[in-house]
Structure formats: structure tokens, C-alpha cells
Write a structure and sequence with these properties.
- Helix content is 21%, strand content 44%.
- The strands form two sheets. The chain has a three-stranded antiparallel β-sheet.
- The chain folds into two domains: 55 residues, no CATH class; 47 residues, no CATH class.
- The two termini are 26 Å apart.
- By secondary structure, it is of the alpha+beta class.
- β2 and β3 form a beta hairpin.
- The chain has three helices and six strands.
């Protein structure tokens, strides 16, 4: 849900010193973000990647997980790498935690 309400390019560029995200085009029909990513690697050189990233909304994730036999799907919000079932998912969360029972 994050890319509906925020610029992914601005988010990535403001939170990283070793990568730059540019030429973003987010397609609302396919939920795909096409962009160029420049990354500085360990030796200090830079590489450029053409990226094609797919985003998912909670209803899609729930359907996909249930279609392969899981039940009781819970989807929670988190701050970059800080996963917890205590955080409700909002449009401010770039990442989400998904827990299901088999």
C-alpha cells in the first residue's frame, strides 16, 4: 500500500547513502515499479540496475497464501526490519509482516 501514498524513489533516496533510485514509473494497473538503481559496492565502484519490482496489497497476499493451504493469515506493519505483531499495518509501512498457520 506504501506506493499508493508515497514516492518510493524519495523514500529510498532519503534513507540510503549507498544507492540512488531514479526514473521511477509506478503502474497502478499492474502494481509494478520500473526504475533504475545505482548502487555503490564494497570497492567504491558503482553499478546500475534496471529494476522491475512488484508490490502486493494485503488482500492479494491473503488470497495467495490461502490458495496454497494456509489459514489464519495475519498481516502486520513494521519499520524497516523491526517486525512485530504489535504494530498494525498502515499506509506508512514500507514493509509488512505476514504470519499464517498451515
Amino acid at each position: 500500500m506504501f506506493p499508493y501514498f508515497h514516492s518510493v524513489k524519495d523514500f529510498i533516496n532519503s534513507n540510503s547513502t549507498s544507492q540512488t533510485n531514479r526514473k521511477n514509473t509506478f503502474d497502478l494497473m499492474t502494481f509494478r515499479d520500473l526504475y533504475q538503481l545505482e548502487i555503490e559496492v564494497d570497492d567504491g565502484s558503482k553499478i546500475n540496475l534496471n529494476c522491475n519490482e512488484r508490490y502486493y496489497v494485503p488482500s492479494e497476499i491473503t488470497w495467495l497464501i490461502k490458495s496454497v493451504g494456509f489459514n489464519n493469515v495475519g498481516i502486520y506493519g513494521c519499520q524497516l526490519g523491526a517486525f512485530s505483531k504489535d504494530v498494525p499495518l498502515t499506509t506508512e509501512n514500507y514493509e509488512m509482516l505476514v504470519i499464517a498457520e498451515y
